[in-house]
Hints:
Structural class: alpha+beta
Subunit structure: Interacts with COX5B; this interaction may contribute to localize PYROXD2 to the inner face of the inner mitochondrial membrane.
Strand order of the largest sheet: 8-9-10-7-11
Number of strands: 12
Shape: globular
Number of helices: 11
GO cellular component, one term: mitochondrial matrix
Helix content: 25-40%
Protein name: Pyridine nucleotide-disulfide oxidoreductase domain-containing protein 2
Pfam families: Amino_oxidase (PF01593)
Largest sheet: 5 strands, antiparallel
Function: Probable oxidoreductase that may play a role as regulator of mitochondrial function.
Order of helices and strands: HHHEEHEEEEHHEEHEEHHEHEH
Amino acid sequence: xxxxxxxxxxxxxxxxxxxxxxxxxxxxxxxxxxxxxxxxxxxxxxxxxxxxxxxxxxxxxxxxxxxxxxxxxxxxxxxxxxxxxxxxxxxxxxxxxxxxxxxxxxxxxxxxxxxxxxxxxxxxxxxxxxxxxxxxxxxxxxxxxxxxxxxxxxxxxxxxxxxxxxxxxxxxxxxxxxxxxxxxxxxxxxxxxxxxxxxxxxxxxxxxxxxxxxxxxxxxxxxxxxxxxxxxxxxxxxxxxxxxxxxxxxxxxxxxxxxxxxxxxxxxxxxxxxxxxxxxxxxxxxxxxxxxxxxxxxxxxxxxxxxxxxxxxxxxxxxxxxxxxxxxxxxxxxxxxxxxxxxxxxxxxxxxxxxx
Length: 356
């Protein structure tokens, strides 16, 4: 249990709770859930520019990362189709993957197919079910994809000023504006309480909030004097109590709760808001293809990691379909903007390609 690990090393409850957020981020779990300690390890095991456990902002926004990957691929001769949804994986008479079919009927032929869509979309929607082992299909259907995350993107006309560290007179960003700001994390019991509410179908009344202001480091993201604020919040259930839908009223009610919490730490925040975009778990699934809204394509629990990700005997990026590989967050080692799954899958696919 993460709680036991933190109690062993630290005395400060706010520090323990702040560290605990990385153990439950994106997970429908509390600091008291068995296995939660691994999720914390997963988020600090890497490095950024030589600094272990460090994270960073992508200059130009997250879309700039996609553009960098696209440019690198194009430089190597790749052809990129955008706004072209894949309908299904094309199989030959020998059962091998031979390309993909787009929704407009276009066939894109290839010797290998790598999918960074979720295992659920790859194997339950894009692949003929009769070509897959029944136990494999059952395993993919049983993957826990519950997600507690509601992402809120906010545009503000001035920098938030926190009671604990008021803004400078010139309005310039201070060091804490350039970091992750954790709110409602004074104690691990608050995280557990927020989790418990969501398990009963209710959005947290005092949600865990991770607030980032990327424009504090990258001014080009917003007009002068304005900023963009990214709110990673939980816990929100995918399905509300009583089967109620996540309609506009429910979305706005939860966002208002989040903003009320921020207002308590940074008076004037609500008055500074000039726009907001609310993405609940169903929205994240519909827009980005994340199963259940899960940012990791499936829970990072011990029963869904390592040799069991996405299914036992298929953790090596190959699938039951020869020539079809899984290279996204649903493959080993799981989620995070690190590219490890893609790099590993590419090496396996390249090895197989050389043997064709």
